[in-house]
Amino acid sequence: MGTEVSEHDLANVRQLCDQAQLYDYLKSRMNTVAPNLTALVGELVGARLIAHGGSLMNLAKQPGSTVQILGAEKALFRALKTKHATPKYGLIYHASLVGQAAPKMKGKISRSLAAKASLAIRCDALGDGQDNSMGLENRLKLEARLRSLEGKELGRSAGSVKGKPKIEVYDKDRKKGAAGMITPAKTYNASADAVLDQTPKSVGEETVEKKRKIDEEAPATEEKKDKKKKKKSKDVEVAEITNGDATGEKKEKKKKKKEAEAEQNDVQDGEKKKRKRSSEPEEATETPTSKKDKKKKKKKSEE
């Protein structure tokens, strides 16, 4: 202040004036070319999207998922090659709605903003009217969605799941001219408090009834125990009898086997003796005949 203006200062002032004129020119051109997109995203972000796509018609042919990632192609292909998480936003990150959101909500808001922006681009490129009503409506819906998401996060961190406050998504769900919700508040039902006419029993009466029940159940339990003991004794006797019979049968079988083996041995011994007796005389008869034959052979040989 109060000093002379140098040439360097004049050059900077002229540049700022040129930038202001350029911004005004861009604002007016974007409002005429793509009014719905400018209402949603803003002049600068809308112009960058159109410049990146090549033209408004080329941008209208692309889906919302592509509009969301425009400007982050390098990160996308790097993530696909290395199998990491893909980027959530590109040039849309500089929009005012994404800037208002919390860091956790930026991905959700950028996805919904890209979907609405693709609809707005198609309306601007192929529609007849030059009105930005559609863009303004979608912007209001996105702001309401952002508020509802932030409210849900606050409800989760506030307390338990049952104690979460019910937050409506849009303002249309509220009553006109009142702050309350459409759903009425629950009232206390007094008719459900009907009680039967019963006199409460004292502690002494309850104990007496319990003792009576125990005394009545005691003989039944004793009879059951006696029956169990009798059954056990009978089972033991039957088992002893069956064991004795089994042992006796085994002894008899062993005796029979021994007798049969002895008989077989006697028969075999008798047969052996008979064979020996029959073989002895045959040998005796054979010996003299063999001697006579030898003498005859000698005589014949001498003659």
Automatic annotation (TrEMBL):
Organism: Linum tenue
Domain (Nop): residue spans on this chain: 33-151
UniProt keyword Oxidoreductase, yes or no: no
Ranges of compositional bias, category Basic and acidic residues: 203-225
Record field: compositional bias (Basic residues): 292-303
Any one GO CC term of the record: box C/D methylation guide snoRNP complex
Listed GO biological process terms: ribosome biogenesis
PANTHER family: NUCLEOLAR PROTEIN 5 NUCLEOLAR PROTEIN NOP5 NOP58, NUCLEOLAR PROTEIN 58
Disordered: annotated segments: 197-303
Coarse class of the protein's main subcellular location: nucleus
Name of the featured protein: Nop domain-containing protein
Keywords: Nucleus, Ribosome biogenesis
